[in-house]
């Protein structure tokens, strides 16, 4: 009696006849391309990993929305600032340079600053607002800033200025 050629099952490693369409030991489909079965497993694992990560991110966003900046606004202060004037392609610019200090226990990102410019009489004559998406102000540290605005008035009209921190987001908050 002649022996039939055999092959190894890619899942259970048992020896089966070459003509077999299904493994008699583990019931694996042997008619498919051998590599396809393990790839399907990896694809499913990858999909499950993505789903798990999505659930963790959703849980984190719900469980920890981040510290509200309004409760710490008075701890983020402007230490110093100065005005400078310059010419540019579009006209005259008023630039405010300064230092901001974060006295809170929280780091802040995506900060928005507002600079109000006043004349000799204390009347508001111009406003500059700038958003800093890439600047991070670490807890208990200082950071420099620059707000540059087209000047609506002659340089001599700008007598003083005041800088305000309008908004910021907790650095631990996911977007």
Task: Give a description of the structure.
The chain is an alpha+beta fold and 175 residues long. It has two domains: 58 residues, no CATH class; 102 residues, Immunoglobulin-like (Sandwich), CATH 2.60.40. 16% of the residues lie in helices and 44% in strands. The protein contains one helix and eight strands; from the N terminus they run ββαββββββ. It has a three-stranded antiparallel β-sheet with strand order 3-4-7, with no helix packed on it. Strands 6-5-8 form a three-stranded antiparallel β-sheet, with no helix packed on it. A two-stranded antiparallel sheet has the order 1-2. A hairpin with a 6-residue loop joins β1 and β2. The mean pLDDT is 88.
- The CATH architecture term of the largest domain is Sandwich
CATH superfamily of the largest domain: Immunoglobulins
Largest sheet properties: 3 strands, antiparallel
Helix content: 10-25%
Give the overall silhouette.
rod-shaped
Tell me the strand percentage band: 35-45%
Main attributes of the structure:
44% strand; three-stranded antiparallel sheet; 1 helix; Immunoglobulin-like; 2 domains; alpha+beta
List the helices and strands and how they pair.
Elements: E1 6-8, E2 15-17, H1 36-63, E3 76-88, E4 91-102, E5 108-118, E6 124-137, E7 141-150, E8 160-170
Antiparallel strand pairs: 1-2, 3-4, 4-7, 5-6, 5-8
């Amino acid at each position: 009696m002649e022996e039939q050629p055999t092959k190894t099952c890619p899942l259970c490693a048992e020896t089966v006849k070459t003509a077999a369409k299904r493994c008699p030991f583990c019931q694996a489909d042997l008619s498919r391309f051998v590599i396809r079965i393990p790839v399907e497993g990896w694809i499913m694992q990858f999909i499950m990993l993505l789903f798990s990560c999505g659930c963790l991110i959703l849980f984190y966003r719900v469980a920890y929305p981040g510290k509200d900046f309004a409760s710490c606004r008075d701890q983020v202060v402007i230490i110093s600032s100065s005005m400078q004037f310059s010419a540019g392609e579009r006209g005259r610019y008023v630039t405010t340079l300064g230092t901001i200090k974060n006295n809170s226990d929280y780091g802040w990102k995506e900060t928005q600053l507002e600079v109000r410019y006043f004349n000799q009489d204390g009347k508001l004559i111009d406003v500059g607002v700038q958003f800093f998406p890439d600047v991070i102000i670490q807890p208990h540290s200082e950071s420099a800033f620059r707000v540059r605005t087209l000047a609506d008035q002659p340089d001599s009209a700008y007598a003083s200025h005041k800088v305000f921190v309008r908004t910021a987001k907790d650095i631990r908050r996911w977007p």
